[in-house]
Structures are given as structure tokens and as C-alpha cells.
Amino acid sequence: MSSKQYGKPESGERLLALIKAAKTGAPLRTAIVHPVDELSLAGAINAAREGLITPIFVGPRAKIDAAAASNAHNIADFEIVDVPHSHAAAETAVALIRDGRADALMKGALHTDEVMGAVVPRATGLRTERRMSHVFVMDTPAYRKLLFITDAAINIAPSLGDKQDIVQNAIDLAKALEVKTPKVAILSAVETVEPKLQSTLDAAALCKMADRGQIRGGALDGPLAFDNAISPEAAKTKGIVSDVAGDADILVAPNLEAGNFIAKELDYLAGAVAAGIVMGASAPIMLTSRAEGMISRTASAAIAKLYRRAQEQ
User: Fold this and answer.
1) Among candidate residues 153, 221, 158, the one with its CA nearest the CA of residue 187
2) pLDDT tens per residue, range 64-85
3) Do both 248 and 289 map to the same domain?
């Protein structure tokens, strides 16, 4: 398999390796929320062809059939749950998971807020004791390995307690993708603790929480600025002695805006290909942006399947 079939030559090869690794085993029964456009339909169908998911299309049947017909997609073999609109699709898809009829959720042609609005309620959604957060898994040509970035999609201004869960979620996902001891860089604008800069205080606290076993499975350091988190030369110049600095697997942003800027800059200026899922829910949730292409959608399904596989071991 080559990334050329996904329309981005010479990119995404490490994500393609995840797709290959995820092909074995039973596919995830995945509720596709409101797949009424070409991208969301094609993404689900391609993930099914790769053996990653068994799609259950949830949305207005007439619109799903029309989107399939206009793009020459044969969906006759797939289950369709007919509901009147996108809001009902989100609620019904979540109910399928709660009832044991689906294992995962995939966002279709609707806003993230609408999906998460059905996921978040404690009584009817997919909440656990863990704070939910999104983790981007980015294949960046300029970096030597996959880079995990969190949280750039859900938590706007996370508290220290939220960040504890955000870090643990990212570690759990990285370990599921066979990063043995993920190196976690807690980002700020500087690499020293500054009392007037809250992100540096949070970084220091998170590192101490890891020392005390409140965060497990990874090696943490912070605060670290972006350059000395990923560049050995920058870390050496700043005199930072750390197993994490210059070799981070996970970048933890101080807030959603910073995380979103990092992920999109890598995507649009550095040739990165991004996949990722929501962690901390009772089932994996694929929130691929409507602007992302086929490899991102397929790799997100692969990541969800690999994470679910790791949970079951």
C-alpha cells in the first residue's frame, strides 16, 4: 500500500503503517454520525474495505442514499439507521454504543459540538470518570517519529485536574500504538517556572504528579518551550538536561488555542498528515475534521481499533 492512493504522495507513511497494523482482527462496529456527504461516506467505506470498521450509518436515509448515488458508492451491504436530522443522529449513535450494538463513533457531516453534545451527558452519554480529550497523531516529515498533540479540539482552558487526565489519555493512546514509555513535553512559552505564567506552574505540578504516581506510564518534563521540546540542538543550547527535551513523543498544549495552532501549522506548513481520536469516553470517538483527506480518516479508524485492541489485552 502507498500513500499515493490517498492523494498525498510521499506523506503519511507512518500512519499507513498503523493502518496495516490494525487490519488483523475483527473490525470495530462503528456508528457513523450523519454521513450525508462524499467525504464522510467515502471515509467510512474505505475504512471498511481496509478491515478496520463495520459501518452503521446513522442519519436521514434519503440524504445518505442520495450522497451515495451521486458519488457512485454502493452501500447496499451496510446497515442504515434512519433518523430525521443530525441531532437525532448523534443521540442515536451514542445509544447504539450504550446498548452494545456499536463499539466506536465516527463523526460525519456535522459540527463537533453536536456530536459531543450527545456524548457528554452523564446519564445518556459516554462519560467515564476520566476527563475526555482529543489527541492528534501527526506524521510530520520534519520529525523523526509520530507526534501526539493534545488537546486541540475539546478542552478550551483546562484546569490542572483536567490536564492530569489529558496527559494520562495521551500516554494511554501512545502506549496502545506501541510507544513503550512516551516522552511527554508540557508546553509553555518558556522552559523555566514563572509565577506569573500559569502554564509553567501547571507544568511543574504535572511533573511532580507523575513523580508521585498520579500520572502513570510516561516520562514527563516541563515547562518546555516548543523548540526545546522537539529539537535536541535547542535543548542543548538552553542547557536543558532531560530525557524528554529534544525527543518528545507527546506535546501537551496549555490550552485549546495553542494546541490547535500547533496542529494546523504542522498540517498546512510542514506537510504533516493528522489523524486522532477522543480519549476518556467509554468508546473511541473519531472526530476527523471536514477538511481532512482520506488517509486521515482511515488512519483515525486504525488508531481507534488499535486502542480498543490494547484495552482488551
Assistant:
1) 221
2) 999 999 888 899 999 999 999 9
3) no
